[in-house]
hydroxymethylglutaryl-CoA lyase (Candidatus Proximibacter danicus), 305 residues
Amino acid sequence: MSLPRSVKIVEVGPRDGLQNEKQLVPTAVKVELIERLADAGLQAVEATSFVSSKWVPQMGDNTEVMQNLRRKAGVAYPVLAPNLKGFDAAIEAGATEVAVFGAASEAFSQKNINCSVAESIKRFEPVICAALALDFKVRGYVSCVVGCPYEGAVAPEKVAEVAMRLFDMGCYEVSLGDTVGVGNPASVQRMIEACARHVPMKQLAGHYHDTYGMAIANIYASMELGMRVFDSSVAGLGGCPYAAGASGNVATEDVVYLLNGLGIETGIDMDKLLDAGQFILQHLGREPASKAAKALLAMRAGGCA
Ligand code: HMG
Ligand code: MG
């Protein structure tokens, strides 16, 4: 077992983190959050999603977010695009990387994107083709990789099948989403091993929600298998509108604290990351869900955490 020397973190706070917020967050606040995260050293910041605003009202300002963004060279700003309508709008707004999102569970697929898993794959095909024709990168998500809020446990083979379809269709990376955060190091490793039989490990990413507090352990277990890309959300914001009770993604601050401690490079400036977290939390009137952020902020304030 050897841990990687460097890890890429895909920051999903502005999309996965905010999509569940009931109060509409002003566009200017979203834009400043994205810019602060890029300034903190994140190489990829998922900026918004081009889904129906009837389904997810918080993402209704997707075009304005993309158009007002000051882009930093070398940073990717992927957006979700579930179908050609979303893809066309994303491109029109200036996106150059998109992500399609499917699931390993039929019930979740229906609740989340209103179609079966097989239908979703059919819808993704023209999106991926159109993106690749423009030389744009497409990321693929698989949700419910360990468990589903409606169907319970999900078989690793089912996850592997969807991951393989997305990869074979041209996704450069497949992000494995423990949407409800029920995974533990054993179940997550079993799931990754099944996927890695069909998709090269370096093209797999971990996207772990932290409902049961297992996400950091799951990242460590994933790195033991050779995974080196993880999604996380600043301050641990978020949840999924179609997975009631699920917590946000693992907090970016917690992941960076772990990786710093292990001597694994991320290129992220923890101080600037904490500032970005404080910025959005002050706006939302909330405390950080991240334990590392809480402790580091207490130290900053002169405490003894
Ligand atoms: P639908 O109702 O089946 O779509 O929704 P439709 O094709 O039948 O069209 C119905 C209406 O929606 C039409 O408008 C379309 O124009 C419009 P109307 O004629 O009624 O005025 N429409 C759209 N509008 C804007 N953008 C679009 C779009 N497509 C159709 N792209 C759809 C299908 C996928 C659009 C819908 O189900 C939807 O928007 N779902 C939202 C899903 C979502 O955002 N979920 C959260 C993100 S996924 C996630 O969080 C998981 C992840 O983090 C990984 C993990 O944690 O596991 C990625
Ligand atoms: Mg998610």
